Amino acid sequence: MKRTVNAAFVFLGLAFGIAWVQAAQQRLADSLPTQYTDAEFWRLVTDFSEPDGEFPYENFVSNEINYQVVLPEVTRRIAPGGVYLGVAPEQNFTYVAAIKPKVAFIFDIRRQNLVELLMYKALFEISPDRQEFASRLFSRRPVKLIGPSSSPSELLVEINATRPDAALHTQTLQAIRDRLTRVHQFRLNADDLEKIGYILSVFYKGGPRMDYAYASRSPNASVPSFYNLMVATDGRGKNWSFLANEENYRFVRAMQEKNLIVPVVGDFAGPKAIKAVGQYLRQHQATVRVFYISNVEDYLSGNWSDYRANLASLPLEPTGLFIRFAPQQTLLRSITEVPARWPGRTW
Question: What is the CB neighbour count within 10 angstroms for residue 207?
Answer without folding.
Answer: 22
